[in-house]
Every structure is written in C-alpha cells, then in structure tokens.
Design a protein that fits this description.
The chain is an alpha/beta fold and 371 residues long. It has two domains: 2-144, Cytidine Deaminase, domain 2 (3-Layer(aba) Sandwich), CATH 3.40.140.10; 152-369, Dihydrofolate Reductase, subunit A, CATH 3.40.430.10. It has helices at residues 2-23, 58-66, 91-97, 117-124, 135-151, 181-192, 201-207, 239-242, 259-267, 284-293, 305-313; strands at 35-40, 43-49, 74-79, 102-107, 128-131, 155-162, 167-169, 196-200, 224-228, 249-254, 271-275, 298-303, 319-324, 334-335, 351-359, 362-369. It has a nine-stranded mixed β-sheet, with helices on both faces. It has a five-stranded mixed β-sheet with strand order 2-1-3-4-5, with helices on both faces. A two-stranded antiparallel sheet has the order 7-14. The structure holds ligand AOF and zinc ion. Residues 31-32, 34, 50, 54-55, 57-59, 79, 81-82, 86-88, 91, 109, 111, 114 line the site of ligand AOF.
C-alpha cells in the first residue's frame, strides 16, 4: 500500500512539473521548455520552468527556491538534466552540489551532448535516478525540440479555418470571418504555444495580418512571424514590417532576391533569410531547415492554400489543427490547400484524428501524421 501511494505521489509531482513545462511552450526556443519540482518530506519546496529565451534552465531556479531544503530532497524533472557546459553550468552539477537524494526524470534528452550522460553523471554521484515516469506526456511537450534536434526541422502544425467543404474565402475574396469568436480565440492559443507562425506572401498582401498572440498574459515573449516571400513582395508599409521592432518578423526569400529591397526590409528591423529556390518560390524543406538552424522548434503554419499544398505535397506537415465552420461555400471558393498533383489515393498524405472539440458553433479537429 505504502509503495502504491508513493507512486501516486511521484506521478502527481511529475504532473505538476509537466504543467509548468507546458506554460513555457513557445518562449524557450532554441531550448526545450522543462518543468522541475523539488519535494522534501512530502512538501513542494521549489518549482520552476525554463526561463524565456531558454536560460536559466529549470533545475537551478527550482533548487535556488528550495535553498537548504534541497538537501535530501526528491527532484521531479520533465527532461533529463543537462551535463554539458553551455552558457550556463551543467544542471547535474547543481543537483549534486545541492545534495539531493533522488531525481525522477520523465524523458531522456535527445541532445547528443546529454542523451543519457546526465542520468549517468547523477548516478555516479550516488543520487538515485528513476527514468520514464509519464514519458509519453513529456515527449509530447518536448516534440518540437526533438524534431529540431533529430530531424533538423521544427515540428510543423498546419492550422486551417474553413467551411465544411474546405473553403477559406469566397470567389470574390471575402474571408473574414468564416469561424466564430471561440474558434478564433482557440487559434490564438495555438499561436501562444508556437515559437513561430508562418504565412505565405499572398496572405500578407490580402489580409495585412499582425500574427501576434492577442491573449493577455499568455506568453512572456512575442511569437516570431515568418513570411515565405520568395521575391520579397511584402510592402514596407505592411504591419509585419512596421511592427518588426516589437515582435520579430522574418522573411524567407529566394537566394539572390533584390539586395536593395532586402536591405530596406532589414533596415526596418526584420530579418531576411535566403533560401534556395524551387520551381515555384523557395524550397520549403530548406526553409524549414533554416528556421530550425535559427532555433525554431514549434512552427504554426497559418496560410494560405499554396503554402499548405506545398508542405503537404512534400510531406512536411506533422499535425493539422482544422477549424470547421458549419457552412458550405461550394467549389468556386478558394480551397484550404490548392491542387498538388495527387492522382492515386495511395499518394495522399494521411493523418490520424487525435481529438475533436466543439467550439461555439464551430469545431476543432486535431490530426497527427499517420506513422
Ligand atoms: C536542462 N534543463 O531547463 C533545459 C535543458 O545552451 P544551453 O547551455 O542553455 O543548453 C541547452 C541544452 O540544454 C538544450 O539543447 C537541451 O539539451 C538542454 N535543455 N536542460 O537540464 C532545462 N531547457
Ligand atoms: Zn540544464
């Protein structure tokens, strides 16, 4: 009985650590968002999440909060503590110096500088280490970082807001608003947990969007706005350029694009990233690689139909968040994804439905790439 309740206590503290880690999503890139809870004699004496920008890591902050109480404590951490010298000392050293008794880790760090060596180091120092508690939940929180580390690209979520027949605008170009306020709030929440939001230049020219997360208190640092704009057609008067000093605006342009234009956009405070060209526009796979190199782990793609089609065609979409309004527009409306040459059903990218949520009159369905 005693051990069953101890296991329940472990699980409940790890759930708190995971909740902390989820709060940091979107703000800790290029680092993962990690949650840490320090428990002594059944009482929580320290808790922390990785700071905005990725440093300090969670453990030293939680240990500092615990102070002397860390001696002999159990530490719950959603990711294996790091053992490398980066811009901050290794978290393993902080745990050893604090003389904690036990460290419970949810998942191993995929970063090759750590990857098992953090847990080894703690064990060598005589600390009891247990791995794997709530590993699936922790892996979900870590998915962006894992994607960037192991695949060299961010985790890509495609967000679509359409009619039941998958239309995003009428043939006359009217698109605001297809879904209602609760669905639009949920879409903002998706931005809240993304490191960056990406749109094509067509969306910028049509809607002049701001692409910020307008839910007060939701995130500590602004979301990065990314525009796929191969020939840098975004006008200097666009909101994304004018507000580049308040929130980062990045433009993925085709290598060799008009240097004078690129200089003017950069002068306004935006970042211009050159990417190799493709038949139409830029090579999006290389665009994603460039974003990962710049530190982005979680990318939300918001439109439009051309970008969606190109990403789907190249198998670059990991998840879809599809908001459906209970309305039908007909085939002359603009499609969520333009044609991308599917002739055989076996060529279609397929997804698995993970969740369906009613949102006011609308509905959100969440899909994940089928294995
Ligand atoms: C932890 N706790 O809260 C986080 C960790 O560049 P640095 O020195 O900040 O190190 C970044 C690496 O540290 C990152 O790649 C990942 O392996 C790990 N992140 N580790 O112990 C934390 N955020
Ligand atoms: Zn660390």
């Amino acid at each position: 009985m005693a051990s069953a309740s101890a296991a329940g206590e472990d699980e409940s503290h790890m759930r708190s650590a995971l909740a902390l880690a989820r709060r940091g999503l979107g703000g800790t890139w290029p680092n993962p968002s990690v949650g840490c809870v320090v428990v002594k004699d059944g009482r929580v004496v320290g808790r922390a999440v990785t700071a905005p920008g990725g440093r300090p890591h969670a453990e030293p902050t939680a240990l500092a909060m615990a102070g002397e109480a860390a001696l002999g404590a159990t530490v719950y951490v959603t990711l294996e503590p790091c053992c490398h010298w980066g811009r901050t000392p290794p978290c393993t050293d902080a745990l050893i110096a604090a003389d904690v008794a036990r460290v419970v880790v949810a998942v191993c760090d995929p970063d090759p500088r750590v990857n098992g060596k953090g847990c080894d180091r703690l064990r060598e120092a005589g600390i009891v280490v247990e791995e794997g508690l709530l590993a699936a939940e922790a892996a979900e929180v870590l998915a962006g970082f894992t994607s960037r580390t192991l695949r060299g690209r961010p985790l890509v979520t495609l967000k679509l807001a359409t009619t039941l027949d998958g239309r995003i605008a009428t043939h006359a170009g009217e698109s605001q608003w297809i879904t209602g306020p609760p669905a639009r709030r949920a879409a903002h929440a998706l931005r809240g947990h993304a490191d960056a939001v990406l749109v094509g230049v067509g969306t910028v020219l049509a809607d002049d969007p701001e692409l910020t997360c307008r839910i007060p208190g939701f995130r500590a640092s602004p979301v990065v706005r990314v525009v796929v704009d191969s020939h840098l057609r975004t006008p200097l008067t666009a909101k994304l350029v004018r507000t580049a000093g308040e929130a980062p605006s990045w433009f993925l342009v085709r290598s060799g694009t008009d240097p004078a234009r690129a200089a003017a956009v950069a002068e306004a405070g935006a970042r211009v990233i050159e990417v190799a060209g493709a038949a139409a526009g830029i090579d999006l796979k290389q665009g994603l690689t460039a974003l990962a190199e710049a530190g982005i782990t979680r990318l939300l793609v918001e439109g439009g139909g051309q970008i969606a089609a190109a990403l789907l065609r190249d198998d670059l979409v990991d998840r879809i968040a599809w908001f459906h309004a209970p309305a039908v527009m007909g085939g002359d409306g603009w499609p969520a994804a333009q044609g991308f040459g599917v002739a055989l059903l076996s060529d279609m990218p397929r997804f698995v439905c993970r969740r369906v949520v009613p949102l006011g009159a609308d509905m959100l369905s969440e899909f994940e790439k089928a294995a």
